[in-house]
């Protein structure tokens, strides 16, 4: 299994707005070959720290998603947020191979 974390920081007063956006996400990734799960995490002590966690069966499946057109379309939607402060946030991304469960 392969997991990817995309962590970004938003003003705490906008955290609920961002959570709402992800609760109503397009779900395009859900149909990607090898996709397993999506989680949205909010830091318990820093409300403005939000992490998207994706699970894929393999690194290759994730890389195929990233290289595909649906990935670009999904991220183009993010650039169209009405709130340009949120649209301009660049996440910190880390990728991990799951070695035990």
- Our estimate of the beta-strand percent is 25-35%
Question: What is the H/E string?
Answer: EHEEHHHE
Q: State the separation between the terminal residues, measured CA to CA.
A: 10 Å
Spatial strand arrangement across the major sheet:
2-3-1-4
Summing up helix and strand content along with how strands pair, one would put the structural category as alpha+beta
> Percent of residues in helical segments?
25-40%
Overall body shape: globular
Structural domain count:
1
- Indicate the CATH architecture: 2-Layer Sandwich
By DSSP, the count of extended strands is: 4
The residue ranges in which pLDDT falls below 50 over 5 or more consecutive positions are: none
Q: How would you describe the oligomerization state of the chains in this entry? A: single chain
Number of helices: 4
Please describe the biggest sheet, giving its number of strands, its sense, and whether it closes into a barrel.
4 strands, antiparallel
CATH topology: Alpha-Beta Plaits
Mean pLDDT across the residues is 90
Radius of gyration: 14 Å
CATH domain class name: Alpha Beta
EC number: 1.14.-.-
Organism: Bacillus daqingensis
Keywords: Monooxygenase, Oxidoreductase
Enzyme class: oxidoreductase
């Amino acid at each position: 299994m392969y997991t990817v974390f995309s962590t970004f920081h938003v003003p705490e007063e906008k955290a609920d707005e961002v959570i709402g956006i992800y609760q109503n996400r397009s779900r395009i990734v859900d149909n990607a070959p090898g996709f397993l799960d999506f989680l949205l995490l909010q830091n318990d002590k820093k409300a403005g720290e939000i992490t998207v966690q994706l699970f894929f069966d393999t690194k290759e499946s994730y890389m195929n998603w990233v290289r595909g057109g649906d990935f670009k379309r999904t991220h183009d939607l993010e650039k169209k947020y009405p709130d340009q402060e949120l649209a301009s946030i660049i996440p910190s991304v880390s990728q991990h191979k799951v070695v035990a469960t």
